[in-house]
Amino acid sequence: RWQKIFMFPLWSKMAVFWNKMFLTIIVLLIVLFLDAIREVRKYSSVHVNEKAANVNSSAFDHIQMKLFRSQRNLYLSGFSLFLWLVLRRTVTLLTQLAKEMASHAALETQVNDATEAAKKYMAENERLQEALSGKGDGKKKESTDATEAKLKEEVEHLKAELQKTSNAFHKAKTEVAAVKKQSEGLRREYDHLMKKFEELQQSLNKAEDKKDL
């Protein structure tokens, strides 16, 4: 059902737009991050100079508030940039996992078809061998021998195809397991980062409340 939903032509038409949007947001977050670094350096130096000059308390508090806001913007823009990249990587891994699962299902169907065909030819070969055990004239026996040789060649060819398909199936299964493991690790890392981000934001809110008081 989900494959049918995501196979709509509308998504493929919007893919270019979403890629451009993602790159635009990345550039915007990088600009904000660099601007926050510049503001932190600026107000850090001003904070030190004003503290050394022993100016009045209102100007010092104003500079301290500016420094706090620039640091807050630095943390927010940095975490947003990092989490946006993590989200992009997660989407990429999920897409790869879906493709590997689809190829896994196709290979499994192909293996089953090849197995059924091999069983069919083996049954025909057994019937021909039973027919050879009876009496017959020389021409019929030669024709039966040629048919049996042809069937043996086809059986060997099918066995080779079956082995090849089976190897591809096991390879795809291993790749799917690796992608699943990588996706689970990334999901755990994302949850851990979100927890750290919430703790940092709570500490920033508490610090801002103290500054307001």
From TrEMBL:
<dbReference type="GO" id="GO:0006888">
    <property type="term" value="P:endoplasmic reticulum to Golgi vesicle-mediated transport"/>
</dbReference>
<dbReference type="GO" id="GO:0006915">
    <property type="term" value="P:apoptotic process"/>
</dbReference>
<keyword id="KW-0472">Membrane</keyword>
<keyword id="KW-0812">Transmembrane</keyword>
<comment type="function">
    <text>May play a role in anterograde transport of membrane proteins from the endoplasmic reticulum to the Golgi.</text>
</comment>
<feature type="domain" description="Bap31/Bap29 cytoplasmic coiled-coil">
    <location>
        <begin position="153"/>
        <end position="212"/>
    </location>
</feature>
<comment type="similarity">
    <text>Belongs to the BCAP29/BCAP31 family.</text>
</comment>
<protein>
    <recommendedName>
        <fullName>Endoplasmic reticulum transmembrane protein</fullName>
    </recommendedName>
</protein>
<dbReference type="InterPro" id="IPR040463">
    <property type="entry name" value="BAP29/BAP31_N"/>
</dbReference>
<keyword id="KW-0931">ER-Golgi transport</keyword>
<dbReference type="InterPro" id="IPR008417">
    <property type="entry name" value="BAP29/BAP31"/>
</dbReference>
<dbReference type="Pfam" id="PF05529">
    <property type="entry name" value="Bap31"/>
</dbReference>
<keyword id="KW-0175">Coiled coil</keyword>
<keyword id="KW-0053">Apoptosis</keyword>
<feature type="transmembrane region" description="Helical">
    <location>
        <begin position="74"/>
        <end position="91"/>
    </location>
</feature>
<dbReference type="Pfam" id="PF18035">
    <property type="entry name" value="Bap31_Bap29_C"/>
</dbReference>
<keyword id="KW-0256">Endoplasmic reticulum</keyword>
<dbReference type="GO" id="GO:0006886">
    <property type="term" value="P:intracellular protein transport"/>
</dbReference>
<dbReference type="InterPro" id="IPR041672">
    <property type="entry name" value="Bap31/Bap29_C"/>
</dbReference>
<feature type="coiled-coil region">
    <location>
        <begin position="104"/>
        <end position="210"/>
    </location>
</feature>
<dbReference type="GO" id="GO:0070973">
    <property type="term" value="P:protein localization to endoplasmic reticulum exit site"/>
</dbReference>
<keyword id="KW-0813">Transport</keyword>
<keyword id="KW-0653">Protein transport</keyword>
<feature type="domain" description="BAP29/BAP31 transmembrane">
    <location>
        <begin position="1"/>
        <end position="106"/>
    </location>
</feature>
<keyword id="KW-1133">Transmembrane helix</keyword>
<dbReference type="GO" id="GO:0005789">
    <property type="term" value="C:endoplasmic reticulum membrane"/>
</dbReference>
